[in-house]
Request: fold
Amino acid sequence: MAKILTRTSADNFRVMPYNLRVFAVVGLWGNRRKQYRLYAVLLLALVVIVFPKPVRISDRHPFESIVRSVAELIFAALCYLTIIILAIKSEPFRQVIVKLEQTLALFRDKNDQCSQLIVEVNTSIHRFSLRYAKLHLLYVLLFNVAPPVYNYPHYFLQSKLPPANRTVEFMLPLMQDLYGLNVRHNIAHYTISWLSITPFCAFFTLILWYKGSLFMLIRYNTLLYQLVNLLLQQFADEGPGAKLRQKHHRLQRIVELHYRAIECTKLLDSILSLILLIQFVGCLLLLCLILFYVSRNHNLNVINLGVLFSSIFIEMMCFSYLGNQLTEENASISNFAFNCHWYEEPIVIRKYFLRIILQSHRKATITAGKFYNVNIVTFAQLIKTSYTYYMIMKEMF
Reply:
């Protein structure tokens, strides 16, 4: 385990080395023969978590509890669909990582501003990944540890009262009926349920951390556009004194780097397009349902739904912010190109600049199902629409 988590100097020019080593252990990356582990756990999670969930209104399950159950089903569906789509898109996923690593490797043996930028960004991505993992560890503790910490002392306090005065109803990590077990009032049944679902909740947390690798890839792609801008800035600082052959070589390198960045964006969009469309729709419904449940229930059950709300909100915020940053960084390339006074250069140099400017005007974006771009504006619209649907639902029910 220490070897998996150790970060070396060679990792400064690699893409998510620490994450990929962890993913390889559980079958999410690398050797496909190990993927049977992943499929076995997904199947067991269906049996233990998804199938026992109540979806019909009854005396035992009033409308609010069904709202919570549906919200949890949507959350699980987002995790399942992400894994399924990434399994289908495993080849583009591998290609984008290979392309990014090949591009970063070009700067490995150089001690210049570009290599320093790569090290800085890669270090910040590594730190973010560790913080993101710690955040999800906190989710596991809140989601699975908080309920028994409350339930067991409460049960033993109630057991000292006369039977007629006992009002024990356990706080559940998940809204479900585990194959006929009385998980709300029987301490033995509750314990069986809690021990059954906790490993799978931890597994879903690992999937959420795996989804985080997707917006880390967006950040790596943005880094390529930053390198293009930095190289253009260095070209402008050289001034007119540089030799034509040197200029030709430097611009050829910049054009190739920009083309690789655009290729990576297209690959990322092919991977993320359907995932983000499902994510946006699921997030819209999930936020609406969670707001409705929290407004009707003022007990400790809202802690677990608060964890789901926080998780999906942070995910969408990261995708939107990084998608916005990617688009802006590519758009700024044309401004850096104009600052090079390319129109004063010989025709052979101008042709390179025209290619760079034309490529930067082709908007580099991450989309949700090709319907709309993923950025801060669409994220704000998502939150606004979720709140609108919540208000409609509140008035109707």
Observations:
- The radius of gyration is 26 Å.
